[in-house]
Amino acid sequence: MERLEPSQPEEQGARSGAESPERLDDVKGHLDSALDVLEQELERAQRAMRLGEEEPTRVVGPPEPLSAVRTEPEPLTRGTSVGRYLVLERLGAGGMGEVYAAFDPQLNRRVALKLLLPGGEEQNPGQARLRLMREAQSMARLSHPHVLPVYDIGEHGDRVFIALEHVEGSTLRQWLKQARRPWREVLRVLAQAGEGLAAAHAAGLVHRDFKPDNVLVGRDGRVLVYDFGLACEQGTGSPRAPVPVDLGALLGTEPPVPDTEAFACLNTREPLETPVTRAGLIMGTPGYMAPEQYRHEPLTGHADQFSFCATLHYALYGEHAFEGSGAAALARATLEGRLRPVPRDSDVPGWVRQVILRGLSPRPEERYASMEELLEVIQGEPRARRWRQVLAAVAMLFLGAVVAGAVGQWHQEQSVCQDVTSRMHDVWDAPRQEAVRQALLATGQPYAADAWTGVKGALDTYASGWVDQQRRACEATRLRGETSAERFAAHTACLERRRSEFKALTGLLAEADSAVVEHAVEAVRGLSELGPCESMDGVLAPSPRDTGRPAHLEGSHAQLARARALRLAGQYAAGLSAATTLASEARVQEDPALKAEALLELGRQQLFAGDAHQSERSLHEAACTAEEVGLDEVRAEALVTLTRLVAYDTARAQDAHDFYQQARALLVRTRRQGRLLAELESAHGLVYAAQGDPLAAESSQRKALAELEKASALESPEGAIVLRRLGLALAAQGRHAEALAENLRAHAAFLQTLGAEHPRVGTALVSIGGSLSALGRPTEALTALRQGVDTVARTLPPHHPFQATALDALGAALWRDGQGEEARRVLRRAVEASERARGPEHPDTAQPCTTLGRVLVDQGRPAEALTLFTRALRLRERALGPRHPELAAPLTGQGEALLRLGRASEALAPLERALVLRSTHTVPPEALAETRFALARALWDTHPDSARARLLAREAELTLERSGTEALRAQVQAWLAERSSDG
Predict the structure, then answer these.
(1) Averaged pLDDT for residues 89-106
(2) What is the pTM for the complete model shown?
(3) Residue 800's CB: how many other CB atoms inside 10 A?
(4) Do the beta carbons of residue 774 and residue 964 sit within 8 Å?
(5) pLDDT above 80 for 426
(6) How distant is the alpha carbon of residue 864 from its chain centre?
(7) Do the two domains 167-378 and 759-982 of this chain adopt the same fold?
(8) CDD domains given for it (predicted)?
(9) What residue ranges do the domains of the chain occupy?
């Protein structure tokens, strides 16, 4: 057991007065007794540390009087407003408070909200509140790459919150548990955290609670120190306590009376100047606290240095630096300097151990002069080590010469598999990466930098996955003999197909223009998955293309890869031309595998070009050809695409269901899951939505999300697209709060993967605004909608169909907010944008026509409105048939316009038809109430004192209970009240 030398008794006696040996024995006995008391008092802390993953910050000292049982509030639901922020999900909770992921609509970014719980840790509420404010102020005054940034502080009811940067990643403790970390990697990560501590010291602060749970390791590689709730000024700590405080005497005293005056002046004193730690209490985390924290001595950066080295010990050796499992045992070991021995299996070099030992010295002056000095030592290995490395290298050369003959064959076999990395040359090596970066940034698009970040991260992962899989396959065959040569050849050919796609896409990105950068991240994520190559085990039979191909066909496969890359990158015209040429050549070549793949690509290209008829023919031929030669993967992809192709055509619903069943059976048989199955389930949801069955659509989208979650692709553009489709299905049922929650999740995923200036982020903002408007939250709705419309207008071409969709949503929200004149102007632009994008006879134009008609009815212009409703009805009926629920909106509009024109008898027919459609389908309750109320008025005007009219109006009133329907409910109630007095 190693022991650090404690302070000498003589020195302690000099500070506190001469003591006799008998007196010293008494003090020692009293200290042991007091520490036993501490062990009992901290039993709750010990249990929590055994059960929980994190080690909570402790208030160590005399037990507080029992407080009333605290009732914790329910977690905030998605979409709840906290200040200007919208809650997305709860990330975690502790004794002090909760942490939520949230969205800031003003600055269009994701944040983390730390929200104080009432009476957190049974503290005085004012004290807990003050601690959170101090944390915010401490972190806000630090601007450093390794300190978590604070954005804002505010109040939510009786609770205080701070808004911080939302970092995707994990705590240092979680990061260490995810995988075995080499000691050099641990040093690198901790050194970055140490730089954050050094910045705090330079600003005059001591963190006072540095530990593995207060360090974030981001997925982007950043390392950040956070939770400055116990931070104090250098040279302070517990101003009213004598220095030093004997721990035994401290534990033997009664709890002090709370100093309420220290918190009463919260509004007049700066939080950092107000002591949070009361006399007689020690705040920190046992196992990481410096001895001077236990002794209530003034604290300097040396205390953080101690905590840093205790954390470094835990990170390197996987256990506490000091002996003991409970809080009091750790305190005793810390004060006595009793360190655990080094684990026998540790590969951490001795010089690192010496650094830790010095940093854990009980006396602050024996540690390093500063954090900077400590960091300088751990970031550079000693000269002696470098000299030993030179000697070792010489020895290895000599040894290698002696045994070269014995191991030469082994090295040759190893090199065969180790050379796999070279296959990424000219595909994703440093020159290609730099070419892509420059090309993307040169477009000048506002989201180009974010696109480059997303592209590089995704392609780095793909390249690493490709190399690892190829190396594993090689070693299993060449070194261990676990796999046959035929199986290895098929596996390699499958991976080579992926590599060709990879190379074609990076080549295209290296020549990127503005259109390419818009689709860059999604293009990368659209690369063929690597998993199917590894899972070819007899269930998925090797195909002709996976057993090698003649040299004269190499060019055709390269053309196929480029055509696919062009489609993924949004270059639809060029992609269609390349795919058409390739498919024509493939039909005359003797390679059915190439023919099937070429036809599949051609069908996809034709679908994006809007040629549904030709697309369906190509996909059918691809599926049949693939079935003939056992290409299950190609056939499955063709069937999935066919499902999506006919998804919106209600007349082809049965065909779509048939394609879905065939594709799903094939994917189940081949054990194929992940993104392709998710794409199929989501496409099936679109079929149900087109049929006017939002309940079934919701079920399918949730199945798609479950598959994406299995593939760890939920926080991706594909996942966000499915979330938006789920939001649409929920909104179609009138479940607008749930729709808002899913739209917020979609926006967060788009924001994270595509950057704030990507058009998909704008589309998500439009969906968020539509949900907020339907919920009766007009100010928030209009903020999100205006920002979404601006983003879409800035990043999409003027003829893009979503321009009309965004303007329609904004116009509807303005109308609901009573801003009729601006709504009318915006909606006229929406109709024009739809006509420009799709043509005046396209069914999509029906939506803005219907919304504009409703505004005109309210403005007393029913004749103009009637023309628009009639046009919308004609467009939808021609596309959807006579019994689709979407016809109900223009039919109800016709009835309203006719009522305003005094033609109540003519209004009855369209309103009766609309009521049947909405009563027999799942629609938003407020939509059904609108039709019922309009029909009630028409019936009353044509048949005064109609009992059915009153019944319809009462049914409408009962339906209008949720937020956002208050105005219509008031109209219905007033109408009923007038008819009741008439009776």
Answers:
(1) 81
(2) 0.58
(3) 17
(4) yes
(5) yes
(6) 46
(7) no
(8) STKc_PknB_like
(9) 167-378, 540-644, 759-982
Which CATH architecture is the domain 759-982 placed in?
A: Alpha Horseshoe (1.25)
**769-to-77, 542, 812 alpha-carbon distances in Å:** 18, 50, 10
**Gap between the Cα atoms of 294 and 245, Å rounded:** 8
The torsion defined by the Cα of 249, 251, 253 and 257, in degrees rounded to 10, comes to 130
Residues 166 and 769: their CA atoms lie apart, in Å, by 22
**Token pair recorded at residue 909:** 């027919």
Of residues 130 and 821, more confidence is placed in 821
The string of pLDDT tens digits covering residues 558-585 is: 888 888 888 877 787 888 888 899 888 8
CA-based nearest residue to 907, from 874, 879, 865: 865
Q: What angle do CA 730, 736, 739 make, to 5 degrees?
A: 50
Q: Are 474 and 420 in contact (CB under 8 A)?
A: yes
pLDDT at 531 over 70: yes
Which of these ranges, 236-250, 590-604, 826-840, 896-910, has the smallest mean pLDDT?
236-250
pLDDT in tens, 13-58: 333 344 444 444 554 554 455 455 445 444 444 444 443 445 666 5
For 39-62, b/e burial (b = at least 16 CB within 10 A) is bebbeebbebbeeeebbbbbbbbb
- State the Cα–Cα distance between residues 782 and 213, nearest whole angstrom: 40
Please choose, from the candidates 211, 207, 200, 195, the residue with its C-alpha nearest in 3D space to the C-alpha of residue 146: 195
Q: Which CATH superfamily is domain 540-644 in?
A: Tetratricopeptide repeat domain (1.25.40.10)
Name the one residue in this structure whose structure tokens are 């305003």.
Answer: 900
Distance CA(541)–CA(635), nearest Å, equals 13
Please classify residue 535 by burial: count the beta carbons closer than 10 Å to its beta carbon, then call 0-12 exposed, 13-18 middle and 19+ buried.
middle
- pLDDT for position 36: 54
Q: Which residues, at least 6 apart from 324, have a Cβ–Cβ distance to it below 8 Å? A: 330, 332, 333
More confident residue, 403 or 916: 916
The pair of three-digit structure tokens given for residue 538, joined into one six-digit string: 């007899």
Q: Does the N-terminal peptide bond of residue 801 adopt cis geometry, omega within 30 degrees of 0? A: no
**Whether 949 contacts 933, CB under 8 Å:** no
Chain segment 468-491, per-residue pLDDT in tens: 888 888 888 888 777 788 788 888
Total number of residues shown for the chain: 983
| Residue 322 bridge partners (DSSP) | 339
Whether 211 has a binding-site annotation, put simply, is: no
Distance CA 256, CA 262 (A): 14
Q: Which two tokens stand for residue 255?
A: 């709890």
Q: Examine the pLDDT at 452 and tell me if it is beyond 50.
A: yes
pLDDT on residue 981: 56
CATH architecture of the domain formed by 167-378: Orthogonal Bundle (1.10)
Helices (H), 526-652: 531-534, 554-568, 572-588, 592-608, 612-628, 632-645
Encode burial over 234-244: b for 16+ CB neighbours within 10 A, e otherwise.
bebbbeebeeb
Q: Of all residues in the chain, what percent carry a pLDDT higher than 70?
A: 78
Least confident of 358-362, 377-381, 459-463, 894-898: 377-381
Which of 95, 106, 104 shows the shortest CA–CA distance to 72?
95
DSSP secondary structure, 101-126, as one string: EEEETTTTEEEEEEEEPTTGGG--HH
Q: Is 311 exposed, middle or buried (0-12, 13-18, 19+ CB in 10 A)?
A: buried
Confidence of residue 63 (pLDDT cuts 50, 70, 90): very low
Closest CA to 533 of 505, 487, 494, 489: 494
Report d(CA 936, CA 932) in Å as an integer: 6
State the burial class of residue 507 (Cβ atoms within 10 Å of its Cβ: 0-12, 13-18, 19+). middle
